[in-house]
Amino acid sequence: MNLSRASEKLQILADAAKYDVSCASSGGNRKNENKGLGDSKANGICHSFTEDGRCVSLLKILLTNHCIYDCAFCVSRKSNDVQRAAFTVEEVVDLTINFYRRNYIEGLFLSSGIFKNADYTMERLLRIVKKLRIEERFNGYIHLKTIPGASEELIKEAGLYADRMSINLEMPTEAGLKMVAPEKSHEDVKKPLHFVNQQIQLYKADTKLIKNTPKFVPAGQSTQMVVGATPESDMEVMYTADRFYKDYSLKRVYYSGYVPIRNDDSLLPSIGSQPPLLRENRLYQTDWLLRFYRFQVNEILNAAHPNLDPEIDPKLSWALRNLHEFPIDINTAEYDMILRVPGIGVGSAQKIIAARRFGKLRTYQLQKLGIAYNRAKYFIRCADTPFLSKDWQPQQIRNFILGSSHGKFQKAATQQLTLF
Amino acid sequence: MEIYVFDDTLEGLLTLIFDWYHRKPGPILVHSEKHHHPSAFHPAFEVVTEAEKASRVARGLQQKLTQAGWRNFYCTFLSEQPEAFQHLFQFAVYVFSGVENPEDNYGHDSVLYVSQMARKVEREKHHLEAFIRFQHTRDGMYYAPVEPKYNVLPLIARHFKDRYADQPWVIYDHLRRYGLYYDLQKLDLINIDFQKNNSTTLPVSISEETHEEMYQFLWKDYFKSTNIESRRNIKLQVRSMPRRFWRYLTEKQI
Lengths: 420, 254
Fold this sequence. Notes:
The structure holds two protein chains of two kinds. In chain A, about 40% of the residues lie in helices and about 10% in strands. Chain A is an alpha/beta fold. Chain A folds into two domains: about 290 residues, Aldolase class I (TIM Barrel); about 100 residues, no CATH class. Chain A has a six-stranded parallel sheet with strand order 3-4-5-6-7-8. A two-stranded antiparallel ribbon of chain A has the order 1-2. Chains A and B meet through α1, β1, β2, α2 and α12 of A and α5, β4, α6, α7 and α8 of B.
């Protein structure tokens, strides 16, 4: 491999791939049974963290940034004047293997611009994963983009070698997508998502009957939406996400705050405007509430509350709107209800359930368990809580919590400007 | 109150527990030899490690604890914190007291301590699995120096053996002066005393043949290119990847 050439390609194609936020290496269960290279960890490993605080788990690159499409939000769009490059199959394999051997990465995240047509691109991607798995006996994690419009035979074969496959929805609503990428539609994404999901279920059913069923996309599928580029409300974003979680049994939906990449477009925010990091954070919090805290999406976002509160997190916001459900008694409440207390996470909730079998829990024990007591105290009672006749109003609790805590996004707004 | 001193090994600690039940001295202080200072007010009792006693206590604990509970016990031991041994002793006594599912009682001081300390140790283990960087040396060996906060090499051995089954490697703990060596067949503990220079460079030189420098260079390239400047958030980076690991990270070398 020629160093300067490889280095140049790597810079161009890593730069073009970085807006894909998915980096998870979890859910893989490929074991190193052939004395080959690599062994997947079910919980995934982040091997490094860049200065933007995002993790580097996979070697995330495009096979090429040549593309026949012209989507307004994408750096690799046809009309954009950027340097183009393409890796050869051997180069991708060589980089993956050698990075993996040095414990730099967990595996490969391979995506690509569409050159010529969908099948041609998909076929190239397939050749790379096949070479890795068969010739190099590589058992690390492989995340592969499904190219919309590629033939089902190719997708099916790729699924036998990849751990996760994904297709990006790009914009949360069909209307938003049409604005920035008239050539694309949500239907193009739904079809292959549905096909792969169907195959996964088929293989799963087979494993019950036949022991040696090959793995098919064992870590499931994911998708990504760009937020902040088109004017959707949080409700529209989360309802779309919720529907995709349910319809296609997705493992993850990613929300990517739009990072402005062009100045010449009246449709999109221009360069220099800050990516909506706070909004992105709130969306992820909501996503977590749906997946781990047994919330329904319409409890958090509905016609009366179409957007998330930027000042407080969605769980606290829900609790303040539903104060009639609180306070709950930690020593008797159901697990589902303990989960809903602001300041108590899944781990602490489980610990509380386990520990209270040994005797009534007291305040100091809760504090030691590691719950955010200053936040939770307005919503719970335990063995030694004094009887309080005062009922706080939601606005009061909100002010207490905001006054005593220091949100990570708060500072920027309140800081006084320097004079010079 | 008597001070029981054991020899820093797990067998030693388990023997200590056995002896306590045998001698019945009431409340005691547990010290490991490394952290022990003789005290004018508390007589010391030197525990003599015996494999037979230790394995009886180990078996007893394993019977009363779940697999996860026993692993927590072991992890807490590996933390090497002076107060950990006292808690482990009290934890064991509580386990043997006959309550059901003793490890679930997070209201109990030592139970909580063991579960929390075990978590810290597991996190350090996970950090090492993530932040170890191998360098391909001239003799074909993949070499990685480390300085973990807790003694986690025993915990990570299997992970690396499974993962890098087709390459010989060494992971060397510079603080505790021992390492793991995998020679394609089996895993060994090694004690080499490298010269006492604190440099991060290799004890063996890297060569042209392995292209080590090229891949390091490309990795740094990738690390730079994949960063999104407008989302800059150093605080988050440092929180996720504590600075004490940077010394050995390829991408953080200039």
